[in-house]
Amino acid sequence: MILELHPSIKAMRGKTGQWIYKKVGNTTYAADKPKASTKPPTTDQQEARDRFVLATNYAKAVVADPQSKALYEPASGALGKPVFALARKDALTRPRVMDIDLSAYNRQTGDTIAIRAVDDFEVTAVEVTIRNGQVLESGTAVKSNDGLGRWIYTATTNAASGELTVEAVATDRPGNKGTKTEVLQ
User: What is the rounded distance in angstroms from the CA atom of residue 185 to the CA atom of residue 173?
Assistant: First the structure.
C-alpha cells in the first residue's frame, strides 16, 4: 500500500500495531509486519545467527573492558559511530590477505616475503608457512611502518628447487582469520 501523507507530515517510518512504514525516495509505503517463520533455520541461517551472537558478545566485552574500549575509541570519534557498533562490525568482518610478494624471496635464509593484509579495523598478526609438500618453515611476519598494511616475513631455511607453497594467515583483534596462498615454481 502506498500512503499519501498530509503535507504537514514529512515522513512516516517505523511500526505501529501490525503495520510497518518505510520511506523510499519521496514515497511512503505501508505493509503488514512480517511474521516470524515457523520453519527451522537452514544451516547457513543458523551459522549467520551464531556469528552475530558471538560478534555482539565480543562488542559487549570490548565496551566493558577499559583497555579494549580505548583501542576502538579513536576510530569511534573519527567515524562518529559508537564503540559497540565498531567492535561488532570488526568481529563480523574477516581480515583479507591482499597480496603475497615473492619477488625478494630466492629460497635462501634471510630472504624476505612481503604480505599485504587489511581489515576493517586492525590486522594484529600475520603467520607465514612455506611448504614443499610438508612444512618447510613457518613463523610470524613483522608489521612494516609504511602505512600500507605490509608485513615482512624473513626466511629461516634454505629451500631446494621445486614447487613451494607460501601461505599467509592474517588475524584481526577479535581473532578472525583470512588466508591467501601463492605457489612458487
Answer: 34
Least confident span in 9-13, 14-18, 154-158? 9-13
Q: Which CATH class is domain 96-184?
A: mainly beta
- Quote the pTM value: 0.77
Q: Are 109 and 158 in contact (CB under 8 A)?
A: yes
| From-to residues of CATH 2.60.40.1220 in the chain | 96-184
Q: Which helix (H) or strand (E) holds 180?
A: strand 177-184
Which grid cell is 173? 583483534
Q: Tell me the C-alpha to C-alpha distance, in Å, between residue 118 and each of 85, 126, 142, 155, 181.
A: 19, 11, 14, 22, 16
**pLDDT tens profile 34-65:** 788 889 999 999 999 999 999 999 999 999 99
